[in-house]
């Protein structure tokens, strides 16, 4: 009887061990599959974010060029208002650039996908923080500066005042196009000084946002570099 019981114990023990190993193996395999899926999802989303950031850089460079053109226009009209020689052929080109505003276009599809999947999908804590900071703080600040900050609304703040002084001196052709300007301008000194202050403010604010754009570019480059390193792993 004792031998039978011992044999039964060995039999049941072996069966239990087999079941235990099978359950643990299945759990480990399931865990491995989930981790593999998460890793693939992480790489896919990181790639999408990196591609979006590349497009953001292109948009940023366009805005930077626009602001630099605006600064060039300030220098051009400073000469106009102070009676210096100018190339009259480029008058309207600079006039269009002088008070032009810009919007901040940001490709956030990849980041929104990440948020919907859970930010913890990014295993690298440092990279996760960099991405969150870029989209939640830096991009929002840039958008508010370009589109909401009153100092940066050049068309709204300065076009009317500048146009009121320049329009009487424009030469208009028969179809309504500006084809020149009477120079030197005959403007009262106090009005001329006001126009020069406008130019100074426009130029200073454009320089300010160009500095911010430069910082954003550095951060984007850093995030993209770290994303590429993470994907390689």
Mean pLDDT: 87
Strand content: under 5%
Task: Please bin the fraction of helical residues.
Answer: over 70%
Oligomer: single chain
Taking the sheet with the most strands, its summary is: 2 strands, antiparallel
Structural class assignment: mainly alpha
Task: Indicate the low-confidence ranges by residue numbers.
Answer: 28-33
Shape: elongated
Strand tally is 2
Strand order of the largest sheet: 1-2
Give helix and strand order, one letter per element, not per position: HHHHHEEH
Keywords: Membrane, Transmembrane, Transmembrane helix
Pfam families: DUF6090
Transmembrane segments: 12-32
Summed up:
The chain is mainly alpha-helical. The protein is built from six helices and two strands; from the N terminus they run H-H-H-H-H-E-E-H.
What do you see in this structure?
- This protein is mainly α.
- It has one domain.
- 76% of the residues lie in helices and 3% in strands.
- It contains six helices and two strands.
- The protein has a two-stranded antiparallel ribbon.
- Mean pLDDT is 87; it is low at 28-33.
How are the SSEs ordered, and which strands pair?
Elements: H1 2-81, H2 91-98, H3 109-117, H4 125-147, H5 154-166, E1 170-172, E2 178-181, H6 189-232
Antiparallel strand pairs: 1-2
Transmembrane segments: 12-32
InterPro entries: DUF6090 (IPR045749)
Pfam families: DUF6090
Task: Offer a few descriptive terms.
233 residues, single chain, mainly alpha, two-stranded antiparallel ribbon, elongated, 2 strands, 76% helix
